[in-house]
Amino acid sequence: MSALAMIVMAAMIPPCELGRYSGMFGAVFGVASTVTLAIVASVLVGVAMFGGTIFLSQYFQIALRKSPTVAGLMSLPMIFGLLVSSTVAGQLITRYGRWKAYLVSGAVVMTAGLLLLSRIDAHTSVPVVSVYMAVLGVGVGMLMQIWCWRRRTTWQPPNSARPPRRSRSSAAWAARSG
Fold this sequence. Notes:
178 residues, mainly alpha, single chain
């Protein structure tokens, strides 16, 4: 079924558009490769964040027999990890103008957090689960804000005469945005 959908989408792309954008996704939706990668990565990071949140709330309610309110409060370590890492990474990117190291390390930390959370069971202590959630939150926080920033700074509206905005830091982007 998905192969048929790919063939239909490929048939809908005008031949003159095939070389203009990278990949089928870019040709179908008319976006450049950076924007395409940012969109796909943002979806995957969102799936990790919301999947982790939903899984953990169910884990707290079913395995640990907590109330829904307590289960929601028990996910705060992930939210605090997300808040701190997003803020710190944003400040460091603004100060030094380099973002790729934070992107790669965020992906590694998020993957490590997901792997750690895959090892929990009904007998895992709550402090250990809290640390695992904080690790996931740190990784998601570093990734999510960088992908949103990259998407905003490189996307050019279709049929626009101006060149795409490219900046090395969020401070430069903010200065140009007014």
